[in-house]
Specification:
The protein has 244 residues and is of the alpha/beta class. It has a single domain, classed as Aminopeptidase (3-Layer(aba) Sandwich), CATH 3.40.630. Helix content is 28%, strand content 25%. It contains five helices and eight strands, in the order βββαβαββαβαβα. Helix 1 packs across helix 5. It is globular and about 45 Å long.
């Protein structure tokens, strides 16, 4: 593991990176999750669930023979007061990658993976979208901006090829509330294709950014199925040829 340090507001901050080299190391797939929380919240879903998924994906990919390099990155400073600023950990990382000319083919942002209520009416949406998607929050969502819609299609296709867990997708202008609210935004701004993987946060989780976002509220069985599917899907996208 490599700590990628930078300083903001007089404080040393670190993105944490693990690299799994592929047969074509110059081609890169990034899987990332932010490891900070908002003040006053334990952050079990936001975003310990994403970090746990990141660690498990790294474990699952390690024995694979990958076609391209996979970098697994835990990002600092995603939450306020840094969100949407140049001091976001992912913003610092993406800008540095662009300056180096890194050939990042895809970035996956793991943003809250632990909440899957199966009750009618448990899923909310931005205006109008509720007419086109399920009213139960028992699915995992894949979300991108319009420029990343081809990458979104490839990610969803890979996930569905290895998992039967319910999955929905949305390619949307970033102005839609929630679409840009995680680390994928940093990679969009740097000109890379990026997709957020999410349980849709405040659209279904009543404990979002609250002190009540605690571990016993997570649906670990569903979360395990999602993360297993994501690990296999990343293997497909990275051109794995070893054991799944």
């Amino acid at each position: 593991m490599q700590a990628l340090a930078y300083e903001t507001q007089g404080v040393r901050c670190e993105n944490l990176e693990v690299t799994l080299a592929g047969a074509e190391p110059e081609r890169i797939v990034i899987v990332g999750a932010h490891y900070d929380t908002v003040a006053g919240s334990p952050g079990a879903d936001d975003n310990a669930s994403g970090v746990a998924g990141l660690i498990e994906i790294a474990r699952a990919l390690r024995p694979m023979s990958l076609g391209c390099t996979v970098k697994l990155v835990a990002f600092v400073n995603e939450e306020p007061p840094f969100f949407f600023s140049r001091d976001m950990g992912s913003m610092v990382y993406a800008r540095a990658a662009r300056r180096r000319g890194d050939d990042i083919r895809l970035m996956l942002s793991l943003e809250m993976l632990g909440c899957y209520p199966d009750t009618p009416g448990s899923q909310g949406y931005p205006p109008l979208l509720r007419w086109f998607y399920p009213d139960r929050g028992n699915f995992i969502a894949f979300v991108s901006n319009l420029r990343s819609r081809r990458a979104l299609q490839a990610v969803v296709q890979a996930f569905r090829s290895v998992s039967d867990f319910p999955a929905e997708r949305l390619a949307s202008p970033a102005i839609v509330p929630g679409v840009a609210w995680s680390d994928q935004l940093s990679f969009w701004r740097a000109g890379y294709a990026a997709v957020m993987v999410t349980d849709t946060a405040f659209y279904r989780n009543d404990h979002y950014h609250c002190a009540s976002d605690t571990p016993e509220k997570l649906d670990y069985r569903s979360m395990a199925r999602v993360v297993d599917g994501l690990a296999q899907a990343v293997g497909v996208l990275a051109g794995q040829s070893g054991p799944p």
